[in-house]
Every structure is written in structure tokens, then in C-alpha cells.
Amino acid sequence: MNMKKVIAVIMAGVMTAGFVTGCGQSSKSKSTKDGKVQLEIFSTKPESAKTLQGLIDKFMKEHQDISISLTSQADAGTILKTRLTKNDIPDIIAMGGDATYTELQSAGVLLDLSDSGFTEKVQESYLQMVYDVNKDEEKKAYGIPYATNASGVIYNKDIFEEAGVKVPKTWTEFMEVCEKLKAAGYTPFELTYADAWCGLPAWNSMATVIPEKGFTDARKKGETTFADTHKEVMEKYLKILNYAQEGFLGTTYNDGNAAFAKGNAAMSIQGNWAISEYIKTNKDINIDMFAFPSTDKADSNTVTSGVDVLMAVSNQASEEQQEAGKKFIEFMLAQENAKQYIEEQFAFSAVKGVEQDNETVAGLKKDIAEGRVSNFPDHYYPSGYDLAAILQECALNFTNGMSEQENIAATLKLCDEQYDAANVE
Amino acid sequence: MMGVKNASRQKKNNIVTIILFFFAALVIVGPLYLAIIIALKTPDQMSNILALPNSLNFDNFVKAWEMTDYPRKFGNTLFITVVNLVFTIFTNSAAAYAIERNRKKRKIFNALYYYFISAMFIPFNVLMLPLVKQADVFNLDNILGITFLYIVFGLPMNTFLYTGFIKSIPVALDEAAKIDGASPIQVFRYIIFPTLKPMTATVAILSSMWTWNDFLMPLVLLSDKKHQTLQLAQYVFQGQFNTQYNLAFASYLLVLLPVLIFYIICQKWIMSGVVAGSVKQ
Amino acid sequence: MKKEKVSKAFYLMTIPMAILFFIFHTYPFIKGVFYSFTDWKGYGDWNFVNLRNYLHIFKDKNVISSYLFTFKFALAATIGVNILSMILACALNAKIRCKNFLKAVYFLPYMLGVLIIGYIFKYIFSNIIPMVGSSLGIEALSNNLLGTDSAWIPVLIVTIWQGLAFNTLIYLAGLQTVDTSLYEAASLDGATGLKRFLKITFPLIAPFFTINMVLSGKNYLMAFDQMMAMTNGGPGTATTTISVLIYKKGFTGGQFAYQSANAVLLFLIIIFISVLQLKVLEKREERVGE
Fold first, then answer.
1. In which domain of life is the source organism classified (chain A) (predicted)?
2. pTM for the predicted model, two decimal places
């Protein structure tokens, strides 16, 4: 009998606890609570969670009437698509200018910010990149470019010095550097292919330079194929793998970053976003970046740079929330805040007049200033085209000892098949 | 003769005992031991992972507790589990009772029986995409919604378990009570439900374990941080734990701990409960 | 036949539940089937496309390879779990010391969520085993298995580790129904060890074998949590099960309807396998019973 009482008490406790913690309300949380406008910011970059939270706290101090909560989690792209499916769009979205953005934009859930005055504050070229990924390349700013990234090669300056090698400008030099490093007992690359997306940066750097211009449009129309145009990319892609650390396919992004930060390898093929991760492990790491030397023509090699973070507001949010969201974007675009963001993230700003002068990315400055920049090709591939998985499979073939010719043919065939499959319409 | 035989059997059993202990320690307890010592260490003690920590260090637990907003996630998960449990037991047993007792009298009950049983073959993944879509219309992407869905989704399996058991309860029992003037609800409340106890234990354990440990349904339905469950929170924070494995393991243990404690207390009851229902069929 | 009166209360106990069940379980299911014949993205306009989505499935390498992997995985897991749990159950059923304690320990994994267990084992496979392997100089163990073609083996191990408990318990219950006097008779006939198990024990616990095969077969065809925790379907698509594929691609706009078709196909396959299993196993049981 006592047991029954105990159970009854526990039950009552649980029920109240549940209702107090707010299970009672819908998750489409009320737009205002205690007189404060409630906003949710969804960020697809877990690396920048801390920086964003810092800026949000600052914003909330200045705007006592607005309360913002940050959502930032693993596999954000899929989560965001799930939320689109159930029409539960976060009020503000900080995301890359990629296929996921295209999907949200073409679903018509983003607010047109063209007339908000934000567009004048950011650089034209980056705004153009956002237009490019809009449906039908519509010239409207559904997202305001905020931070941009640069992908290439990150190298450990100390190791380069000890091994007596210089920053390579061409593919041939690049391979020489790798040979020399190997001969001197260093691991040339720390690759982290256990996380599929980490196989993309090398591809992205080469795929914009090596195949002829206009490939993405031609491919979309079905006028060309990966197999016809990306053979050289693949050859070089596989060459790189020869110089990676043992078991690179089993190394996760997190573990590999820690290993690189400890000086286990000389280079990593990543973008500026990884730098803050290295510094978490080793504050004193002495690193810099250089553009990926895709070809032997030094002038045509480019830094891969795209819109890493754009700010968008949901048009599903209430009017108050939309206004508050705009206020937040305005706050983020202010010079000192934009500066703080890129300083902590080692990123580049889309905001006019905000420049990155950190040493860790100094090697790229000249390339960027002289316009040797190209956007991420995978931003133009259809959503649902899982190139990362294809490249991971290619790396798996490589570790299984498949011959180079066979692997290239198989991978490029897969590229084409999957591309067509992703375009089921 | 007999003595010798017994002695040799005794010896043999000791070997089995030792082997069982050895595997239990290595395979079952080993990984959990690892998890515990890693959670108790600081990163600089990680050079020898297998060694015991120098000192007991609960900082990781404190940090994980705060980082994942543990009390709220725990409250959410407990709420879902307990509410689901209570409603499941009452509604599903009553439904099963009504179905089983009237299957031969009215076609509709027989039809419902086959309806529920055949629904057992529909896995959640098949419903997932449209259900997520429907979540918007019915406002199901919150704790109450998901609890409600658990109650409904458990119905086929539980009807299957309960009807099998009710079949073995003689109808004469109902009849006798009816003659004494009891209404069907009273019959169920005072006669049938208490008799169902062994099966109720089974249903209780199976559905609690399901709701406590489920990951897929919360993953697709619960996006608001305030509504997330313990399992989902681990997935969400996976990226932020980064290489802080000590912190991550402390967080995993915080999720496992309530279940472990519950298991240690109710272990016998749980094991017999699981068997009772599954084997009855 | 005279119709007996059925009290309204009985309708009250079932009809509301049945209606709710229809709205939240059957209706989404029907809608899913409906979507599978359209090109709906989850938003916006849509058209009927007849069987296009279904025809496309058979041409899509991703889908085909995920089906093949799922079958391989489910088969390996079902067999592995059942063999091991039967051995374990026999051992636990022997006259051993600390029987209850050991039973309790071996049942423990049943209580723990697969996701968390997956995380713990992921760490063991990617950090501890390579470390131990390379310090012992064992080539095969010095790399992270999760980054190789064999990535499915660690995932399988976790699945078996977790699944063993439930099946063992069921077999134990079965073994306890076996009359020990049968053993004595058997030992007089000279049947011992494996022979005794196959001739006497197994036929007697055959119904329990049926339960376990059907339940685990269906469960493992749905495997999801362990992949999400350990490999995220990789490397490449090496450990992508159908559930993982539907989740990862289904919410991508272009594939909402297409993956709905995939889900419907999965449903048909599950039904087919379950019915087949029941038929075959029941038949065998009957034969054994004779």
C-alpha cells in the first residue's frame, strides 16, 4: 500500500516538474515572454558557437527587450532541413551560402532583406555570391553575407623551417615539399577523413581551377560530365593521400585537429575555420596558410573563398521577431562586432572596411587582395548530392589498395551517377 | 561411484563460473569501467588511458551538468517516460480487454484486433517523413506531443501482449462479477486489471526502456532546446564536446546513471518482467 | 447465432484509441504512400509522377547498396546475437555460483541506450584499440577500424553487445522449462555436450528461438542509432542502412517523395521477411515437435 502512495507522490512531482519546465507550451515558442521578444538563432557552424554567444550576450545587454537563444549542433544541415519540413524555421539563421541555403530560399521561408539597408554595408562581390545561389539567381538579398572563409593549405611554420622547405607556388613545388618533408621524417599532411566533409576542401580547391570555366552550368544542363573533365583533379587528389598520416580515414576532425596542433604533421588541407580549433589545443601554435597550388601556373591557382556565414531572417516569424532579428543583424554588421567575429574566428569579413590582419592567415592576403579567389564549387552542386561521401569512398578504395586508374574511373563514374540521382525532379 | 560423479560435476561448474565472471568483467563491465575512469580524469592524465585517475575529480560532471542543462533534459525525459507509462498501462490494457472479450461477439472488435496487430509491421521509419510534416499541423514537436505519440505508437505491441494474457483469464470471472452487478468498467478496474499484473510489469518495462532510450523520434520531432531529451542532448552536444573526451564521458555517464541506479534497485523485478510477457506468447 | 449485448463501455475503451491511432499512425502511413507517387518536396507544388520514384530506386546505387548492407548487417547481427545468447544462456543455466549476480550483470546492457553505448565504443575503437594495437605491434589493430572497409564490424559488435541481453533472458526462460530428468535419460543414452544440446535442448526451446529470430531480425533491419553514433553511415556509404539513408536524404527537398517511396518499399520488405520467417520457423518447430 505504501508503494502506491510513493508512486503517487513521484507522479505528482514529475507532472509538476514537467509543466513548470514548460512542456505545456508549444515549441513554436511564443514570440514574446515577460515583455521580451524571444528569438532563436540557428547556427550551422559549431566552431563559432562561443563567439556568437559572446556577441549575443553583448546584444542582449544593449537591448533589454530582446532575448535570444542560440542553437548550434552537429549535422546542422540535416536538422535544418527537418525543421523546414515541419515548418519550424528558426527566427534567425546563420548559415553558409550553400545548397542548404538555396533550399530554404526556394522554399520561400526567408525574408527579403534587400531594402533593409544592410546590402550597402557589405561587399558587392560577396552579395553577388549569395545572388548566385538564389533560385533562378534572383537578385534579392534573402541572406546578408557576413563572414567569408578561405580554404587552402594550413602549414606549421616551425616544421617548414626545421625541414628547410619554402611555401610552394606550383603543384610541382608542392609535391617536392611533400617529398622533402617525408624524407626529413615529418608527416606532410594531417587529414581527417573520418568526418566525410573533410575530404571536400582539397577537391574544392582544385575543382575550380583545373576544369574549364563554366563547368557547373554545363553540368547542370547535362552538356558535360565529371568523367570528361575531372580526371586531373582526381589524380592529384589521390597523390595527396599518399602523404597523409597513417590511418587518416579513421581520424576524426576533432582528433586530427588536436594532432595537428601538437605538431604531428606539417600541413592540413582545411580552411580558416579550423584555426580556432587548433588554438584550443595549442595556444602557441605557429601557423600560416597558402593557396592550394592546384596547377603549375602559379598565377592561376586560387584561394577558395565563399560565404561562410550569411544572416537570414525567417518570414514565418512574427512581425516583432522580424524587427528584432533585423536589429540583431544590424548589430552584427557594426564595425567593431564584425571585427570581433573575424578576429576570434580567423575569418574574413564581408562587411566593408573590416579587415583580417591576423598572422595565421597572412599568407592568403595577397591572393585575396589581387582577386585570385574562387568560390566553393560544391555550393553550386544540387542539395542532396553527397560529394563528401563519394570522396570518402574514393579514399577508402585508396586505402584498400585499388589501382589509381581504376579508382579514378570508379569515383568519377559515381560522381556523375549521383549527380543525376540528386536531380530527381 | 555417485560421489565421484558429483565431485567432477562440481568442478566443471566452477570452470563455467570462472569463464562467465571473466567475460562479464571484460566485455560488460570493461567498457563501463573505462567510461567511468575517463570521466573522472583531467585531460593531462589521459596519457595512460587505462590507469586509475590520481584523484577523484568530479569537475567534468559539474561542467557537463551545466553545459547540457542536465536537470531540464532529465526532467523532460522523466516526464515523457512516466506519463507515457501511466497512460499506456491504463488505456492499452483497457483497449486490449475490450477487444479480447468482444472479438467473437462483434466484428468491429475482431477487425480492430487485426488492425492493431498488422500495424506492428509498420516501422517508424516508414511514417517518419509524413509524421514530421504532420507535426506542424497538430503541434506535436514538443514534449506533450511526443509523449502522446509514444502512447499511440505503443498500442499495437501492447495490444498484442495484453490480449494474449487476457485470453488466459477465464471469462467466468467476468460473468460472476457481472451477476454481482458490476459494470464492465468495474469488472476491468477491480478484477481484470489486478490479474494483469505480470503483463503490466512487462509492458511497463518495455515501454519505459523504449521512451527513455529512444533517439530517432526525438531527433526528428524535438528541435527546441527546452524540449530535448537526454539522448538527443548527447547527440546535439557531440560537436561541442570536441576532443574534451573527459567531459563527454562524464555527460554520457550522467545519462546512464539514473538507469543504472534504477536497475540495481529493481533488477530482479525487471528481469522477471521482461520474460513474463515475451515468453507468454 | 444470437447476438449478445455488448456494453457501451467496451466501445468507450477502444474506439477513441482506435481513432487516435488512425489519425497519428495510419493516416501518416497512407499519406507516405500517397507522397511516394508524387514529386513533392515537402513544400510547394507537386505533381503525380506515377511509379517514377519506384523505378528510380532500382537504378540508384545509394539505395541498392544500403539495402544490401542492411541485409548483410541484419543477418550477421541476428545470427551473431542468437548464437552467442544461446551459449550464454546455457552457461548461465548450468549449476554455477553467483547465478543471479551474473545474470544481472549480463542483462545490464539491455537497459542502456544504443546511442551512448555507440559513443563509448566509438572512442574505444578509434582511440584505445589502435593505441593498444600499435604498442603490441599488431598491424590489424593499430588503425581505427571505423575508417576501413570493416567499419561495420565495430558497429556489429556494439549491436551484439547491446542485443545479447534480451535474447539471453528469453533463452534462459526457455531452458528453465526443460525438464532436467530428460538430461539424465539422455546421459544414460550416452548423449553429452553438443549432441545433447542439438537433440534434446534445442527442440525444446525452439519456440523461444522463433520469438528471438523474428524480433531481432525486424529490429536489426531498422538499425539506426548505432550508425549515427559511430560512423554516420561512412566511410563513404559503407555503413549506411536504409533507416540512415531515409533520415539523411529524406528531408532534403528534392528527395522527400523519393525517400517516401523508399520507405514504402522498406515496409513491403519487412512484411515479406517477417511472414517468411514466421512460416519457415513455425514449420520447423512443428517438425521438431513431432
1. Bacteria
2. 0.87
